[in-house]
Amino acid sequence: MALVEIERVDMRYGGAGGTLAVSGLDMKVERGAFAAVVGPSGCGKSTLMKLVTGLHIPQAGNVSVAGRQVTEPVSIVGMAFQNPTMLPWRTTLDNILLPLEIVEKHRHRLRKHKKDYVAKAEALLETVGLKGFGDKYPWQLSGGMQQRANLCRALIHEPELLMLDEPFGALDAFTREELWCVIRDLHAASDVTIILVTHDLREAVFLADQIFVMSARPGRILAEHHVPFARPRELSVMYEPAFNEMVQGLRSEIAEARVAA
Amino acid sequence: MSAMVENSAVAGTPPRPAFRMPWLRLAPWLYTLGLFALWELGVRLSGISHTILPAPTVVFGAIVQYWSPIWKNSLQTLYTTTLGFGIAVVAGLALGLFVGWSRSIYAGLYPLMVGFNAIPKVALVPILVIWFGIGTVPAVLTAFLISFFPIVVNVATGLATIEPETEDVLRALGAKKLDIMLKVGIPRSMPYFFGSLKVAITLAFVGSVVSETVASNNGLGNMMASAQSQFNVPLVFAGLLMLAIEGIAMYALMAWVEKRMTGWAHRSTMSQ
Lengths: 261, 272
Description:
The complex is a heterodimer.
Chain A: E1 4-12, E2 20-29, E3 34-38, H1 45-53, E4 60-65, E5 68-69, E6 77-81, H2 92-102, H3 104-107, H4 114-127, H5 143-155, E7 161-165, H6 173-189, E8 193-197, H7 201-207, E9 210-214, E10 221-226, H8 241-260
Parallel strand pairs in A: 3-8, 3-9, 6-7, 7-8
Antiparallel strand pairs in A: 1-2, 1-4, 4-5, 9-10
Helix pairs in contact in A: 2-5, 7-8
Chain B: H1 2-12, H2 17-46, H3 56-65, H4 67-101, H5 103-118, H6 125-132, H7 136-160, H8 164-172, H9 177-215, H10 219-229, H11 233-261, H12 263-271
């Protein structure tokens, strides 16, 4: 049973005459997989994010996560966006603990078991290389560090599914590569399923097992690719001919999708 | 070339801040003194009569001479202003939270509030006098009416401009509207709220003095109105000076409160 199943989904914004953002969308992501979604801009990638997390309910078709049809926000999902949206009045640690104050399962336990949760947050901070930065405020951190903290916040409630919407788009190339490795290791160390929405084809090929190519609006899946490179992958895999071939292939598919639009 | 010189001058500053800081701190006092000096000089050189534009020395003389009524009326004005302002803070915060709660309330009430704000408050004073008689009550209410609008607008704006991503992250976790307001909206609107207090307190003085001028037997507004009818222009200016002092003091207090309560907002914008 796949963790995420999307079947023939239509999503239209702004009533009957509104824009059709996705149409006939079909995709399946297995539990524990790392999937990437690429496509021309405005192809409804963000809509896909909102459909899977239950922020939008489709007009037609079916979205199910963990075997249940999505009719309201599903709290087994963690989200991270390009904009880290850390709250500036909270320390990094308190920002990371924020989801626990919301999620039904944790919010009543938080006060009593604060110590355990703080320890967990600190362990997460250590995995992303931010050990000891918990008591800093977000604005005292660099963009890359904020994005690391953002990942911790998305993971603190141990989501089964992590949705990433271009989380590294605003970072410089070196920081981005560092964070790719952070994500790669996080995925390897846990059984979390990750769906990464991105413009960066190299990022998609480096990180994912499965790549979905979306068409221009109204978005649907044009092709699904399996990434053959063995794990664990080192950054050097990006200089192999097969890697570049795959990136080239994706690029031309997206170029065609843009022309078709 | 001159830009380079400027740059090196700026770069050269940090190692010895101890020499420059006092000037920066003294600047407000020096500029004020400079203004008074220019004023004094201008009046003396031009020979304008004190019944038209009294020199600062004459104004200070009037303050000393009429100290007892000035002090009494200053306290009265301070009292009506802060009371009206206090009500505005409570009511403005409450209405701001209410308005910012949902986009439809925001959309519906906003034009009404703009319309209400466009009404000159001095036009409301006669109505207030009909309802409450002359004296303290209309002054307090005018101060309240004039100062609560910026508070409402700022609090509502703070709530209405939550980043959609933040809202999405929390809603995806199952957050209710109340959660989002408590965890994000209200803390986020606090810098707007405290920022608006500086505007509001200044406006509150305008409101109370306007009301005192037309409909009161107390307060600086009334004192200046009666001084004017007796051609006691130095006393009018003494009243203006007291108002300015009270205004600066209250503004400074609000700025201090703002800094204390929402220091993160100042530091976070500075770091960006």
